[in-house]
Amino acid sequence: MATATAAQFVSMSSHLSNHPSEPKANSGLMGLRSQSTTHHGLRYLNKIDKLQMRTQSKVQKKVSATENVRPSGKIICGHGMNLVFVGAEVGPWSKTGGLGDVLGGLPPALAARGHRVMTVSPRYDQYKDAWDTSVVVEIRVGERNETVRFFHCYKRGVDRVFVDHPLFLEKVWGKTGSKIYGPKAGLDYKDNQLRFSLLCLAALEAPRVLNLNSCKNFSGPYGEDVVFIANDWHTALLPCYLKTFYQPSGIYRTAKVAFCIHNIAYQGRFSFSEFSQLNLPDKFRSSFDFIDGYNKPVKGRKINWMKAGILESDKVLTVSPYYAQEVIDGIERGVELDNIIRKTGITGIINGMDVQEWNPATDKYISINYDATTVMKAKPLLKEALQAEVGLPVGADIPLIGFIGRLEEQKGSDILVAAISQLVEHDVQIVILGTGKSSFETQIEQLEVQYPDKARGLAKFNVTLAHMIIAGSDFMLIPSRFEPCGLIQLHAMRYGTVMALKLSASF
């Protein structure tokens, strides 16, 4: 899911030095501007004009879900900043959902606004466009010293940095679409704590050690005056390591960390006995300490990475004002972190999509490009192309319903599967694309046998087919129980595809 417009982050220490009236106690704080605006490359679609089908920009006031108990200084956005996005996935190199989409689309938009922007993510595969920088660093992970290398490419104004280590490459190579977090959906790699600890430590090294000269406007290392944007639980150790290994030695003294929650359902809960593997001092134990009744990995006392990320970062963000309200609305919606977030405060900034990738006028994955003037002619032809691709009877007059998403309860997959028998009683066709829990994958793969002329289920990750479904469907089915800020809705609106059902909305 998406993240905040990092153009709104600012290191307050340099700003406050010019304002003697501000108290010195605030000099280490980072804030946000009072409004978030849309911009090139990533924007919130408010509506589709029926005649023009234009993407319209709208100033969206940010809503703070609660009073932030952390003091804040005067909030401005001045000159370009050094922004470092850290995430477990980054599209199009690695992607299982919205997180990869955001780290793919938001950084170029911020680079276009004059900021120097880097993303740091694992090198899961032999990416043909990323080259070895020959820069090697040694990192202490668990009980071992690990050597990592950095690969790099420069695309759309962004330094794309990939952390090379066997913990990533050897587990996932050639299987990036679905093997990032575990060998199959619902099953995690046992060493995920070590894997993502390594990512956080490597991300803290990258701005200092990489001498990047890809752009005429910027040259050399990013240095230490940076804002890190950590995304979801996999990067929650970053502020802890920053405070433990760097700032006490005078390194990254002005650096700030914004922690963005894309999906609070995934928190990184592990046995409390494994805290020692993180190589953090005991003073952080309380930030990780967590008790619940869930049996995985053990029942009772655990460590919770996301809890620590929330407590130790300078600012907590999420992907829409609605979701910021939702995660403090009780134990169920906040998944037992609602009380923590109420104490720290959270800011929701509306999600957005990459309008270069998702543009029906230029989309390379569909056979016919269209705009507002040609949509009525193009959509029936694109539907027929989709029908032929998945093996359904071809007919422009048959209503076609599409679904794209993870096959799990959050996305309403159980509701979807249960409803199909009733939907196919009507003169409609259904195409489902997604991966997830094996039980749901098995059920959707049987649709062709049960309803050969009505339904198709494809349990795989396929970018081309996803674009074809968005463009060729008449309706997009979205039965989510909760949706932080679904990109599917934005894609559908831009392609003139009606959303058929949505049980929970975020905006």
List the helices and strands and how they pair.
Blueprint: E1 10-11, H1 12-16, E2 30-31, E3 35-36, E4 42-43, E5 60-61, E6 63-64, E7 82-86, H2 98-111, E8 116-122, E9 131-141, E10 144-155, E11 158-164, H3 166-172, H4 192-209, E12 212-215, E13 218-220, E14 226-231, H5 238-246, E15 256-261, E16 269-271, H6 285-288, E17 289-292, E18 300-304, H7 305-312, E19 315-318, H8 321-326, H9 331-334, H10 338-344, E20 347-348, E21 353-354, H11 375-390, E22 400-404, H12 413-423, E23 429-433, H13 438-445, H14 447-450, E24 455-458, H15 463-472, E25 475-478, H16 487-494, E26 498-502
Parallel strand pairs: 7-8, 7-14, 8-11, 14-15, 15-19, 19-20, 22-23, 22-25, 23-24, 25-26
Antiparallel strand pairs: 1-2, 3-5, 4-21, 6-20, 9-10, 10-11, 12-13, 16-18, 17-18
Helix pairs in contact: 11-15
Major sheet: order of its strands?
Answer: 6-20-19-15-14-7-8-11-10-9
Main sheet record? 10 strands, mixed
Structural class: alpha/beta
Shape: globular
Roughly how much helix do the residues carry, as a percent range? 25-40%
Mean pLDDT: 82
